[in-house]
Amino acid sequence: MDHYYFDSSALIKRYVFEKGTTWINALCSTNAGHTLYVLRISGAELIAALFRRVRMGDINLADAQNAANQFKADFRNHYQVIEVTELLIDSAMILAEKHGLRGYDSVQLAGVLALQSVRTTLSLSAVSFVCADEQLNTAASAEGLVVENPNSY
User: Fold this and answer.
1) What is the mean pLDDT of the chain?
2) Backbone torsions φ then ψ of 4, nearest 5 degrees
3) pLDDT in tens, 21-36
4) What is the pLDDT of residue 95?
5) Which of 15, 44, 53, 125 is positioned for an S-S bond with 58, CB 3.0–4.6 A?
6) HEC profile for the chain?
7) The CATH number of the domain covering residues in 3-152
8) Taking the mean position of all CA atoms in its chain, how far away is CA 133?
9) Cα separation of 101 and 91, whole Å?
10) Whole-number pLDDT of residue 84
């Protein structure tokens, strides 16, 4: 069983068809047996992204509502949700300064690094960071993470 941490830029591909969706769906299939991690703020990020697409005319309201309902069910039942803590925000501020990241991107990077640190301390396998944002992927690679970009599949 492999372990994957999803940034919202990759996670949305599970709920809106775009480049990388087929690969994401295979990765997230319960038959695949992987452990899937998301940060608590991914809930707000993903819902915002869905309804921004409605506003932009990319998807219709009914499709966005269906996708949001599916995501909310998955968020409760399918993903391992990592909480945002004061320490995580402190780390995110350092990462934002170091890599020139946007606010939520730095929090996402801090989240996966915290998870990786715990897994390393416990002598567990590495977690893969799944993200479709090139700048964030560059920062994650610089921090020593294994990065998977769904746009490559």
Assistant:
1) 97
2) -130, 135
3) 999 999 999 899 999 9
4) 99
5) 53
6) CCEEEECHHHHHHHCCCCCCHHHHHHHHCHHHCCEEEEECCHHHHHHHHHHHHHHHCCCCHHHHHHHHHHHHHHHHHCCEEECCCHHHHHHHHHHHHHHCCCHHHHHHHHHHHHHHHHHHHCCCCCCEEECCCHHHHHHHHHCCCEEECHHHC
7) 3.40.50.1010
8) 10
9) 12
10) 98
Phi-psi region of 132 (alpha: psi -120 to 50; beta: other; left: phi over 0): alpha
CA dist list (Å): 149 to 36, 62, 146: 15, 29, 10
Token pair belonging to 140: 């994650």
Q: Are 4 and 37 in contact (CB under 8 A)?
A: yes
Sorted by where each begins, the domain ranges of the chain are 3-152
Q: Cα(35)–Cα(2) distance, rounded to whole angstroms?
A: 6
CB 125 within 8 A of CB 3: yes
pTM: 0.95
Residue 70 in contact with residue 15, Cβ under 8 Å?
yes
